[in-house]
Structures are given as structure tokens and as C-alpha cells.
Design a protein that fits this description.
There is one protein chain. By secondary structure, the chain is an alpha/beta fold. It has three domains: 1-88 and 242-346, Isopropylmalate Dehydrogenase; 110-236, 3-Layer(aba) Sandwich (Isopropylmalate Dehydrogenase), CATH 3.40.718.10; 371-474, Alpha-Beta Plaits (2-Layer Sandwich). The protein has helices at residues 15-28, 42-46, 57-64, 83-90, 147-163, 181-193, 206-215, 227-240, 278-290, 294-309, 329-338, 389-396, 444-456, and strands spanning 4-9, 33-37, 66-69, 95-101, 115-121, 131-133, 139-141, 168-173, 200-205, 222-225, 248-252, 257-261, 312-313, 325-326, 371-381, 405-411, 414-417, 429-435, 460-470, 473-474. It has a ten-stranded mixed sheet, with helices on both faces. Strands 17-16-18-15-19-20 form a six-stranded antiparallel sheet, with helices on one face. The longest helix has 17 residues, at 147-163. The termini are far apart. 44% of the residues are buried. The chain binds nicotinamide-adenine-dinucleotide. Residues 14, 71-74, 84, 245, 260, 263-269, 275-276, 279, 316 line the site of nicotinamide-adenine-dinucleotide (NAD).
Length: 482
């Protein structure tokens, strides 16, 4: 059988030990894979490559399309970019998948029945890193949620559920507050869910959803959510499963995929043959399934479950009640190898055989909306006249172009004019909404003329946002209290 080439990165700290252990198991199970090693991590950063990757690594990854990566140590201090963020963004690895499973009673957890998969969007949201400071007091970050990005990750979650015979997909968002961005994610979820009638679909607001997840994780099957929420809840979910050191994750894109353990490089135990290689090994199982070596994945996963069940444990999960033998990294790998023809007796046996590989349909093309310009939000850095909103309104009173009129002033999103509350704190960051009555159309030149008038008042105009109707619906939120 022709060997499938994959890239491997040994990383830092415990990385080389757990990679050796993982490759030993893959070799023993006869997986037809060949390795192309790339260098990543601390030494590469310190050699002056700010991405943490050697320049020729990209060519190797492009050729094999699959990367099995051990954790790296991110050097302290500025100037270094996160290797994971770079890999996810440059290779468009849009889906982060993290199965969080309890191995009760062999690994301690308060949630014996937990078996939840977190599917996290990996490219959008606040992780664009588009941030600004334009006044002394206020900083801001741009949250970007796209229709194709949402559709792709939500379809992925439903396809995953279908492929792995799961029954329910729950969407977490905060669309009661972020009606446009999270609203788009939720609406897209409802639209795509209708294409999978055999799978139960459910939506929860992220805060109560997370509380429920921490309390009763067995209520959840597959959870799909945006990047930031997913980042947080996937760590919570792994922790309460009792298995941070055991969990593997995959980062999947249309053309490339990366597999890794969720823990870091554990420098405190590096080089001591103490590390648990399970996270990377289970990531490698996900990789085998991804490249279609389902039978090998099944063998390795069942052998691993049997090892855990037999109480052969590394120090991080060793417990006098359930463990029978304390082992180091290489002995643990040896124990898995010895059990390659065995299955767990009490834990659930896995079977990837026959399930093929998972295909996710392309996102539907977004229909072009009919756009109508109806106003502009003008942002000012203003720190005069006791920050009196009425005074600012007076200064702006003469700024009028065409049918554009000042409608409202907000400060950090809260209405402060007209009819503001004296109790509301006023920062130095102001938003003045100019719009037409009845949302009549204005031109881009009208907006520019208006900005000239604002500047002529001696005000510090720091940014603007155009207000559009898209297919007749406002493409902007109202101020709190508006
Ligand atoms: P860590 O996950 O490396 O370690 C936290 C604790 O868990 C330590 O006590 C460690 O000994 C233990 N631990 C972790 N993995 C273990 C394993 N497989 N077996 C046994 N014990 C294990 O987190 P940290 O200490 O916050 O970070 C260390 C370094 O790892 C940092 O430089 C950080 O930036 C990096 N990191 C890398 C990745 C990655 O490459 N994906 C992820 C997280 C952290």
C-alpha cells in the first residue's frame, strides 16, 4: 500500500517525547504513513522567524496537506506571532473540533456521562485582531461575522453530527445583545438546520448555555459556536471531562488540516519521561480518520481505551483507586501497542470503519443585497465643556447636508442626547448619528460634505460608519435607549 505523506512537528518541551510515543503506536498498528518533519517553535522563533515556522515548512505542508503538531513553547516578550493563529489563518483551517469525553470511572470527573464535541469557528469574530485606540480613554476591536463563514462552520457541525451518528447540534450565540453579528450566526444556524431534519437543532444564549454545559454536560451532543465563545467553552468542556491532558483537537480546512493535543509544552516535566502522550495520540486518531485510514484509527483508539481501562496511567491521571500501574511516556505507548488487538470491556468501543471520509458542501453563494445609503455615524474624540452632551449637540446643530439631520448622540453605545440620564458616565468617545427622516437615500458626497462641516466646527473626527438599508432592512443597530 502506498504510504500517505504527513508533516510532523515535534515542538518544544514534552513535544518530542509525546511525538515519539505517538509515532511508535502508529507504526505498530501498520498505518501506511510517511513523515516529513518541519521545525516549529522556540528555536525557530529565536532564529528570527517571527511566525515560529521555518520558511520551507510551508512547501512541505502544501505538499502533504496534513500536519500532526506537538505543542510549542511561545517565547516570552513581544514580537512573536502565535504559530497556531498563523497556521489556522494562512491555511484557512476554519473548523476547530474538540471532542470532550469522560472516561469514568478510570479518569476522575464529576460528569460521568459527558460526551460532547465542541465545533468552534476558527477564522472570524474578534480574532481578526483589528483593534484601534483613537481617544485617550477608549479602545475598540472589530468583530466580523460573515454569512459564508457562519454557513461553513454550521454545515460542518451538522455534517459531523451526521457522519458520527450524533443526534443533536446546539448553537451558542449572544444575539439578544449583538443582533447583527450574532444574529447572523443564529439565523444561519436556523437556515442550515432545516437541511438536516434528522438531527435535533437547538439554540442557547452563550451565558446560560455555558452555565448549563459546566453543570450538566450530558445535555449536549455537538455544540457549534463562534471563535471567542468556542475558545472559552472548549477549555471548560475539556477540563470538566477530566481530560485536559487527554484531549486531542483538529483544525480542518477545505484543503489542509492540523491535528494536535490541547495542552501546552509542559516545560516543568520536559525530558523526564513523565508526560501523558494521550492528547497527541487521540489527535493522531482524528488524523487517521481524516486521511481515510479508519481501520487503523479504530484499532489505535480501542487499544488506548483498553489501556486506560486497565489502569495503566501516567502521573497526571494516576489515582490510587482506579490506577493499577504508574507508567512513564514510553511505557504508556508500549502498553497501547500491546493492546492493539484488544477492545475496551466497559468503556464504549469505537468503530470508524466503513464510515468513509466526511465531506462538507460549499457555502451557498450570498445573494447581493440592494443597498441604500441613509446616513452616517460620526465618531468624535471630545473632552471639553464638562463632557456635556447637550453642549456637543449645540456645537453640531448647524451641521446639516441635504436631508441628513442629527438624530441621537451615544457614548459607548448608550443614548446621552436627547433625553440622556445625568447618571450615565461620559467617556471621551462619542457617536453622533446623522440620518434622514424615513430613511430617504443620500449620496456618498453628502456624507463627505457633512464630515467637512463637522471638521469646520473644530471637532476631532476619529472615524465614520455608513448607515445602509440592505433589501429594506437596517444594517445598523440602534443605540441603547434609542
Ligand atoms: P501546559 O499545558 O504546558 O501545562 C500546564 C500543566 O499541565 C503543567 O503542570 C504541565 O506539567 C501539565 N501538563 C500539560 N500537558 C501534560 C501532559 N501531556 N502530561 C502530563 N502533564 C501535562 O500549559 P502552560 O504551562 O500554561 O504552557 C506552557 C507552554 O506551552 C507555554 O509556552 C505556552 O505558550 C505553550 N502552549 C502551547 C500550546 C500549543 O502549542 N498548542 C498550547 C498551550 C500552551
Amino acid at each position: 500500500m502506498k504510504k500517505r505523506k504527513i508533516c510532523i512537528a515535534r515542538g518544544d518541551g514534552i513535544g518530542p517525547e509525546i511525538m515519539d510515543a505517538t509515532l511508535r503506536v502508529l507504526e505498530a498498528c501498520g498505518a501506511p504513513v510517511a513523515y516529513d518533519e518541519i521545525k516549529v517553535g522556540k528555536a525557530v522563533y529565536e532564529a528570527g522567524h517571527s511566525s515560529g515556522l521555518e520558511p520551507d515548512a510551508w512547501d512541505k505542508i502544501r505538499e502533504s496537506k496534513v500536519l500532526l503538531k506537538a505543542p510549542i513553547t511561545t517565547p516570552q516578550g513581544g514580537g512573536y506571532k502565535s504559530l497556531n493563529v498563523t497556521l489556522r489563518k494562512m491555511l484557512s483551517l476554519y473548523a476547530n473540533v474538540r471532542p470532550c469525553v469522560a472516561y469514568h470511572p478510570y479518569v476522575f470527573t464529576r460528569h460521568a456521562k459527558m460526551d460532547t464535541v465542541i465545533v468552534r469557528e476558527n477564522e472570524e469574530d474578534l480574532y481578526g485582531g483589528i483593534e484601534y485606540q483613537q481617544s485617550s480613554e477608549v479602545t475598540q476591536a472589530l468583530k466580523l461575522i460573515s454569512r459564508p463563514g457562519s454557513e461553513r462552520i454550521i454545515r460542518f457541525a451538522f455534517e459531523y453530527a451526521r457522519h458520527y451518528h450524533r443526534e443533536k447540534v446546539t448553537c451558542f450565540s449572544k444575539d439578544n445583545i449583538m443582533k447583527l453579528t450574532d444574529g447572523l450566526f443564529h439565523k444561519t444556524f436556523d437556515r442550515i438546520a432545516a437541511e438536516y431534519p434528522e438531527i435535533e437543532a437547538d439554540h442557547m444564549i452563550i451565558d446560560i448555555g455555558s452555565a448549563r454545559l459546566a453543570d450538566t454536560p450530558e445535555f449536549f451532543d455537538v455544540i457549534v459556536t463562534e471563535n471567542l465563545y468556542g475558545d472559552i467553552i472548549s477549555d471548560i468542556a475539556a477540563q470538566i471531562a477530566g481530560s485536559v491532558g487527554l484531549a486531542g483537537s483538529s483544525n480542518i480546512g477545505r484543503n489542509y488540516a492540523m491535528f494536535e493535543a490541547i495542552h501546552g509544552s509542559a516545560p516543568d516535566i520536559a525530558g523526564q519521561n513523565k508526560a501523558n502522550p494521550s492528547g497527541l495520540l487521540l489527535a493522531a486518531v482524528q488524523m487517521l480518520v481524516h486521511i481515510g485510514l479508519n481501520e487503523h484509527a479504530t484499532r489505535v483508539h480501542n487499544a488506548w481505551l483498553r489501556t486506560i481501562e486497565d489502569g495503566i496511567h501516567t502521573a497526571d491521571i494516576y489515582d490510587t483507586y482506579t490506577s493499577t500501574r504508574l507508567v512513564g511516556t514510553s511505557e504508556f505507548a508500549g502498553a497501547v501497542v500491546e493492546r492493539l488487538d484488544e477492545k475496551p470491556r466497559k468503556l464504549t468501543v469505537v468503530d470508524y470503519a466503513g464510515s468513509g471520509t466526511m465531506a462538507v458542501p460549499e457555502a451557498d453563494p450570498t445573494p447581493r443585497a440592494e443597498k441604500k445609503l441613509v446616513g452616517v455615524d460620526i465618531f468624535l474624540d471630545w473632552d471639553e465643556e464638562n463632557r456635556d452632551a447637550g453642549r456637543l449637540a449645540g456645537i453640531l446643530d448647524n451641521c446639516r447636508v441635504a436631508a441628513l439631520k442629527m438624530q441621537i448622540i451615544t457614548n459607548r453605545g448608550t443614548k446621552v442626547f436627547p433625553d440622556g440620564f445625568p447618571e450615565t458616565y461620559h467617556s471621551d468617545h462619542w457617536r453622533i448619528r446623522f440620518a434622514t427622516d424615513d430613511y430617504a437615500e443620500v449620496s456618498a458626497n453628502d456624507i463627505i460634505d457633512l464630515q467637512r462641516q463637522v471638521l469646520a466646527c473644530g471637532l476631532d473626527l476619529i472615524k465614520t460608519e455608513n448607515l445602509y438599508l440592505l433589501d429594506g432592512e437596517p444594517g445598523f443597530s440602534l443605540g441603547q435607549g434609542e
